[in-house]
Each structure stands twice: as structure tokens, then as C-alpha cells.
Amino acid sequence: MLGDTQSLTPLLPLQTQESVSFFSLKIHHSPFMTLSSQTNNHHHLVSVNMQETPFGSVDDDGRPKRTGSVWTASAHIITAVIGSGVLSLAWAIAQLGWVAGPAVMLLFAFVTYYTSSLLSQCYRTGDPVSGKRNYTYMDAVRSNMGGCKVKICGLIQYLNLFGVAIGYTIAASISMMAIQKSDCFHEKGLKNPCHVPSNQYMILFGVTEIIFSQIPDFDQIWWLSIVAAVMSFTYSGIGLSLGLAKVIADGTIKGSLTGVSVGSVSETQKIWRSFQALGDIAFAYSYSMILIEIQDTLKSPPSESKTMKKATLLSIAVTTAFYMMCGCMGYAAFGDSAPGNLLTGVLSGSGFYNPFWLVDIANIAIVIHLVGAYQVYCQPLFAFIEKWAAQQWPESKFISKEMRIPLPVLEKYNLNLFRLVWRTIFVVATTIMSMLLPFFNDVVGLLGAFGFWPLTVYFPVEMYIAHKRIPKWSTRWVCLQMLSISCLVISLAAAAGSVAGFVYDLKA
């Protein structure tokens, strides 16, 4: 994504057609809008849906009948997870080597699957078949844990969301730079320096996002999910194919059992880079924060938790196989010199830059994917702030007044001044941060480290313990706590490695 979301990856739920995917957003289902209790406005939205739904085609909660299945849920998870993070996996394996690299990837796959299975059982409070539904991750935290932990969870999600927006801006600008530099080399030769600044592309991406952010929500833009899924598999597939072709052409598999050797880098750098690689791999698997939203699209019977477990197993298996192929093939092609982003090697001197037209297509696919992914991840935060502001200042026309603007493309567009100002400020802030910290791998590693333990491990484990009322100090309770503590240590190590990478890159 960069997943994937994590996580964000994308925030649901689906339309009634099974082909509609994770990028189709319903604002009132967002996990980021539920720090406060449900409001009348929320119920109003539900009632509108009921009025538009034929009699008898509603679920036990009065909402339109859910139609999701194992296959649709798997598709949403795969679409959410496979993102630009896949491009950094060859670099991550290069830091760890042929033994530890794939082993760590399998470890993260297992942990993600296991904790996702725990989280899926928290969708309903009480009875697993007829209990009260938790529509979002935050609803599940509130129902099972409550108190200040709800706000802590929300804060972590918001910070992670802000970081994802920065990471997407950096990734998109790097791909646009790679396209220009590749074309320059093709036209003027490899000896030409072809200097390409990054700031102009970050600003261009930011301006594009300002425009797109004025769309109130993506409720009806179902095609965005299809486009994003196609783009994800396009650039990932091209990276895999180029790696395989290079290995065949070279006639050798590069790399070593322990990865980048001490000597080419210092002992300290080896340690920090290995830690950072953990964060990169964690980022590639992040999607837990949207799992409840995906589960809320599933039909029953059977119970949603059973269906979700099957979908999680299938999607994690497919994703891991794809990651293994992309990461290992990239490492086999480039060995210890594997770049941080396989498809922007023209910028670093390592990676793919021929055939230039194919690499350009891959980078164009990355940019298109990230334009949509940025918006879908940020829409929940946009909506939460706007809902909060409306509750704080209900009489303010600046916040509540909608002005209808006729546009040739749309039947109608309602302009809200507060939405225009607030969303523009947010995009400008993420763009400026991206210009200050244009380090793709460091940002990816830090995001993975920051979001993995709390959102993928800690909250699912604690919610499951509360949900199942597991006795304290029982064997199961101790095992779950040991899992959580172990993952905390991994996250702290990954965060330390990414911070060290920031410091090193800033010096350079």
C-alpha cells in the first residue's frame, strides 16, 4: 500500500455489488468518526438508507442487507494491503538476508493472521450471531475496553493517518521524478546528470489532492476501487516480472544468507537497517484498522467472524506469496545493492530503469494508485473533524452552510467553506512535511513500527481478552500478553531503526 494500510488502506464498507471494493467509502461508517457517542445525524443517515431499501431487505440492525462473502472480503483485504510498501521489500530482505528475511515475513504474516482472527470475534458484543454490531474499529474498542483507551486508539489512528498521507506524497513524487529522469536518460544518454528536483512534484501532488479533497465523500465512486486494484497489481506485477527477467538474464541468484555485510556498512548501520527492515515489512502487512469495516459488509449466516477468519487466511496467504515473490526476486536480482524502491532505481543507480517505457508505466500506475489512496485514507479524518466542528459550533454558518455550485461534470456540487479551508490546510501540512522529510524507506519503516503494535496486536489482544473474559494470569492470558510484549519490542526496534535512518539521511 504504501498495503497496505495498514491501515489506512483503504476504508469501507462496500456497495451492494460484490465487485465493489475497499476504496468505496461511506463516511458514517468510518472508524475515525466514533470517538464520541453516536449522534442524531448518524441515525438520520441510517434512516435515509432504510427509506431507499425495499421492505424486507434489511439486516437485524435496520441497515441495508449486507451481501459480502469470503471472496469479497478477501478482495478488499488484498486490495488494501498490497500497495507501494511492496516495493521496499527487496531492500528489507537485503538487510536481513536469505534466512532471516523470508522468516521475518512469515512471522509477520502469522501474527497478522492470528491477531486479525482475534479482532474478528469482537465484531459483535455478546452473542457472536445476534449480539450488538460494532461497525468500526473504534466501536469495538469502545464496547470492549472503553474509557481513555478509546481516545488513545483514536489518537494513534489519526497520527498514523497523517503519516500515511506524508508517505504517499513522498512515494508519488519519487515515482514522478523517476519518470522524468528515465525519459531524460533515454533522450540525452546516461552520462547526462539529468537533475530532477522533488519539491515541484510534491507540490503538484499536493495541488491535485486539494482538488480531490473537496469531494465530500467517495460513496458513489465505486470505480475508484477497481482502478486502485488494477494499478496495485500492475506496478507490483511489473516489478516481479523485471526481477525474474534479470535473474534469468544474469544466470545467477544474488544475495547472501545474512544480507548486507559489515564492511560495506558499519556494524551500527547494519543493526539500525535490520531494525528498519522490520518496520518496512510490518507496514506492508498493516490492515487491521479496517478489518471491522470489512467485516461489517458480510452477510450472515454463517456468523461474520467465521467468514472473516476464512477471508483473512485466504488473503494473508495470497499476499504473503506475492510479497515473497516480489521481495525475494528483487533481492535475487540486485543482491545487497537492492534499492529502497525497486521501480525508481533510475534515481539511485540501482533498480530497474530498462525498458524505460515499461518502468514508466509502472510508475504512472503508482501515482494513480496513490492519488486515490491518499483521499480514501484521509476522508475519515476529514469527516471526523467536520462532524466535531459542527457539534461545537452548531450555529456557525461558516461551518454548516452549503453553497450549491453548478459544474459541467457533476449534476450538483455543494461547496462548504469550512471543508474548503480545513482540508486545504491538511493537504498543505502533509505536503510541507513531505518536502522536509523526503525519505521513502525511513517513513515507511516508521509508519510500520508506529502502527503495528498498537493497532495490529495490542488492541485486538486486549479486546479479545475482555470480550472472552479470559481470567488474568491464566495460561491463555499469559500467552497473549507474551505475544503482545514481543511485538512491542519488535515495534520499538523498528522505530529506533527508522529514526536512525532519518538522522543518517538528514546528514547526507
Automatic annotation (TrEMBL):
<feature type="transmembrane region" description="Helical">
    <location>
        <begin position="158"/>
        <end position="179"/>
    </location>
</feature>
<feature type="transmembrane region" description="Helical">
    <location>
        <begin position="477"/>
        <end position="504"/>
    </location>
</feature>
<keyword id="KW-0813">Transport</keyword>
<keyword id="KW-1133">Transmembrane helix</keyword>
<feature type="transmembrane region" description="Helical">
    <location>
        <begin position="446"/>
        <end position="465"/>
    </location>
</feature>
<dbReference type="GO" id="GO:0005886">
    <property type="term" value="C:plasma membrane"/>
</dbReference>
<feature type="transmembrane region" description="Helical">
    <location>
        <begin position="313"/>
        <end position="334"/>
    </location>
</feature>
<dbReference type="InterPro" id="IPR013057">
    <property type="entry name" value="AA_transpt_TM"/>
</dbReference>
<keyword id="KW-0029">Amino-acid transport</keyword>
<comment type="similarity">
    <text>Belongs to the amino acid/polyamine transporter 2 family. Amino acid/auxin permease (AAAP) (TC 2.A.18.2) subfamily.</text>
</comment>
<feature type="transmembrane region" description="Helical">
    <location>
        <begin position="70"/>
        <end position="90"/>
    </location>
</feature>
<keyword id="KW-0769">Symport</keyword>
<keyword id="KW-0812">Transmembrane</keyword>
<keyword id="KW-0472">Membrane</keyword>
<keyword id="KW-1003">Cell membrane</keyword>
<feature type="transmembrane region" description="Helical">
    <location>
        <begin position="354"/>
        <end position="377"/>
    </location>
</feature>
<dbReference type="GO" id="GO:0006865">
    <property type="term" value="P:amino acid transport"/>
</dbReference>
<dbReference type="Pfam" id="PF01490">
    <property type="entry name" value="Aa_trans"/>
</dbReference>
<dbReference type="GO" id="GO:0015293">
    <property type="term" value="F:symporter activity"/>
</dbReference>
<feature type="transmembrane region" description="Helical">
    <location>
        <begin position="96"/>
        <end position="114"/>
    </location>
</feature>
<feature type="transmembrane region" description="Helical">
    <location>
        <begin position="221"/>
        <end position="245"/>
    </location>
</feature>
<protein>
    <recommendedName>
        <fullName>Amino acid transporter transmembrane domain-containing protein</fullName>
    </recommendedName>
</protein>
<feature type="transmembrane region" description="Helical">
    <location>
        <begin position="420"/>
        <end position="440"/>
    </location>
</feature>
<feature type="domain" description="Amino acid transporter transmembrane">
    <location>
        <begin position="66"/>
        <end position="502"/>
    </location>
</feature>
